[in-house]
Amino acid sequence: MSTLLVNRLSGLYLGASLQELSGVSTGIDGKKSVQQLVVNIDHVEGDAQADPKHHGGLDRVLHHFPREHYGQYRRWDLITQLEDAPSMGENISTVGLNESEVNIGDVLQIGAVTVQVTQPRSPCFKLNLQFGHREFALAMQQSQLCGWFYRVLTPGIILLSDRIELVERKTDISVAEAMALYFSPEYDAKAYDRLASCEGLAQSWVNSLQRRLATQQVEDWQMRLYG
């Protein structure tokens, strides 16, 4: 028995063009509104990533970002009144579904496409360049208003008129809690064990957590957050 999460999508976006932001290649600002997404197992047709190491791949085929977060970032004076979806580089925009209501490993049905939640978005310095604010990535990391990624279990077409339904819940860790556990500055082996064992978690996150457990230290985030 599936559970209805969103009755209708707010927006669908894709883009094949890449831009230069302060000498850094990015596809974040090249997305446009579309009526449908043609979703394959490993990519969305017509969608491009400038950095395949950190974006895209089987665990990050689709990026979902809650539309209402733009309002919060405006209230914090981190973005302008004109910046809205898809300024975060998202493929899917919704209203009424956030990081506390979606869990790592959740299997969702979006139209004809079945997806699985794999990880929160890990904010990087390209967001600082995108919005002209040096602390934007850090603010996203600390607020957990980050959106999340999907792997594709069943490919197909997503229409703007489609709904989102929860088909199966596999873990008890929400996207927001995963963000809080992963980005806590304090080393916490028990938390890393719990998160790393989450069914469906992106392999890159599993690898990172295992490195922390092996080295007993948290990696330096300065390069990711500030470039």
TrEMBL record:
Residues 31-167 form the MOSC domain. It holds the Pfam family MOSC. Gene3D superfamilies: PK beta-barrel domain-like. It comes from the Bacteria. This is MOSC domain-containing protein. It comes from Shewanella cutis.
